[in-house]
Amino acid sequence: MKNALYLLVLFFSFSVFAQTTESFRSAKMGGNRDIRVKLPASYEKNTEKKYPLILVLDSEFLFDPFAGNLSYANYWDDVPEVILVGVNQNKNNEREDDSDTDPKTGLPGGKGAAFFEFIGTELLPYLETKYRVAPFKVIAGLDLTAGFLNTYLYKDTPIFQGYISFSPELYTNMETRIPQRLAAAKEPIFYYHATAEGDLKKMRTRINALNENMKAVKNELVNYKFEEFKGGSHYSIPTNGIPSALYQFFEVYRPISSIEYQEKIAPLKEGFVVYLNKKYEMIEKALGIKMNVRINDFKAIETAIIKNEAWNEYEELAQISGQQYEKTMLYDYHMGNYWEKRKEIKRAIKCYQDGFTKQEIAGLTKDMMMNKAEDLKALLPKKEKLKGGKAKDVVTEEAPAEETPATDTPVEETPTEEKKPE
Question: The pTM is what?
Answer without folding.
Answer: 0.81
